[in-house]
Amino acid sequence: MKQQTILIAGLGLIGGSIARAIRNFSDHKLIGFDVDESTLKYAKETGIISYYDTNLQHVAQRADIIILAAPITETINMIQKLDQVEFPKQVIVTDTASVKGAILTAAQQINNPNITFIGGHPMAGSHKRGVEASKAHLFENAIYVLSPLDYEAEEQIEVIKSVLATTKCKFLVLKPEEHDEMTGVISHFPHLIASSLVHQAKKWERTHAYLPNLAAGGFRDITRIASSNPQMWQDIFHHNQSKMSYFLEDWIEEMSHLKLLIETNEKNEILNYLDSAKKYRDGLSKKEQGAIPSFYDVYVDIHDQSGAIAKVVQILADENFSIKNIEILEVREGITGVLRLSFHTQKEQIESSKKLTSLGYETMIQN
Ligand SMILES: NC(=O)c1ccc[n+]([C@@H]2O[C@H](COP(=O)([O-])OP(=O)(O)OC[C@H]3O[C@@H](n4cnc5c(N)ncnc54)[C@H](O)[C@@H]3O)[C@@H](O)[C@H]2O)c1
Ligand SMILES: O=C(O)C(=O)C[C@]1(C(=O)O)C=C[C@@H](O)C=C1
User: Where is the Prephenate/arogenate dehydrogenase domain (predicted)?
Assistant: First the structure.
């Protein structure tokens, strides 16, 4: 494909990560727009983009492809603004918003004959925000949903795929309705629950002031996403409101069932409930093509001594194991902590665990 001029409008975590991947793995020219000038300056100074403008309509006229990566409400505003632009040529516009129904509804109103709109949503992210948190490899192996406005725009869909393939993502084409239902279940609703669990802990802290000190791995794992950007999540809930309301009703019904099991102390039924959840959860991480990237975790007990973590990492690096993620789950003064090492393949998981065990480390494997 010939060199394209790609405008990233919204150079935060997601826009910045896409820009970094395109910059690292193609010859395309990257230009930027953002309402925050310090973000634009940072992106220019660090070489993520080669040019920027603080006027969307001006800078859009230079582009062949426009990637909108701002909050959902702002993305809708930008679609409306782009509709007014006199483009000197045909442009492809895509977005990254976490909800697709509202975006495609806005795209349907486009009258500008020079715009082909293809909705997009990379299914990976972080609880961090802003260009400084962006990473070229953020979407590696992640599902990247495309929701084209016009399925017959095959040539433009291929162009977008080819540009975004620099992120090393896996594409999945979905209708906005099915996207919003699926991400509602697997991404948006869990966020609501994570926030509500934090609220419950906060409420009970009034009774037990020492309670936060008991928050160990489990609470931290299940509530990590509650530390994400509140504005972004409010925007997501607002635009996926009807689905969220439906899932809440569904959840309340599920909780009533669970309440009954607990109140009647149905041991076998509770065991079955937990067991079938475990089986389904364990199966999710084995599905290579699933929406959840497959990670194979090894838990290593480490002692709280300086250099202990670096030593484990060095042992695995010497054996050429490629660690995809490292997390320190608990390190408290003077006692054993746990290191979670994530690998992309089961082979690496098993072999790295064997290597560490042979050197006297206590390890545990979990998928
Ligand atoms: N964070 C995630 O995990 C994640 C994952 C996938 C998709 N998304 C979606 O991607 C989009 C961006 O999210 P993010 O996490 O990168 O947020 P972010 O806060 O890191 O970045 C958003 C950027 O958009 C800019 N911006 C705000 N209003 C703007 C406007 N009117 N015009 C131009 N720029 C504007 C901000 O200055 C910021 O640089 C959102 O629509 C979000 O739903 C987020
Ligand atoms: O990794 C995280 O912290 C995320 O929450 C990322 C996550 C998700 O997995 O739910 C959140 C919102 C996006 O639209 C896509 C991905």
Answer: 4-292
Tell me the pLDDT tens digit for each residue of 105-129: 999 999 999 999 999 999 999 888 9
Do the domain assignments include residue 168?
Answer: yes
On whether both 33 and 136 belong to a single domain, the answer is yes
Of the listed ligands, the closest to the CA of 36 is 1
> Domain containing 359 — which CATH number?
3.30.2130.10
| ipTM of the complex, rounded to two decimals | 0.98
Residue with tokens 């109103």, as numbered in its chain: 109
pTM of the model: 0.85
CB 23 within 8 A of CB 30: yes
Residue that finishes a domain, picked among 210, 243, 263: 263
- Identify the residue whose C-alpha is closest to ligand 2 atom 16: 124
Task: Tell me, yes or no, whether 195 lies in a domain.
Answer: yes
Tell which one of 7, 11, 18, 34 to mutate to probe ligand 1, the residue whose CB is within 8 A of the most ligand atoms.
Answer: 34
d(CA 180, CA 164): 21
In a domain, 213, yes or no: yes
Domain that holds residue 155: 5-174
Number of domains in the chain: 3
Closest approach atom of ligand 2 to CA 224: 3
Compute φ and ψ for 281, nearest 5 degrees: -65, -45
Can you name the residues that pair with 117 across neighbouring β-strands? 93
* Ligand 1 neighbour 95 (Cβ under 6 A): no
Of the listed ligands, the closest to the CA of 231 is 1
For residues 71 and 59, membership in a common domain is answered with: yes
Q: Are strands 51-52 and 29-33 parallel, antiparallel or unpaired?
A: parallel
Ligand 2 centroid vs 233 CA: distance in angstroms?
Answer: 10
Q: Quote the ligand 2 centre to 66 CA distance (angstroms).
A: 22
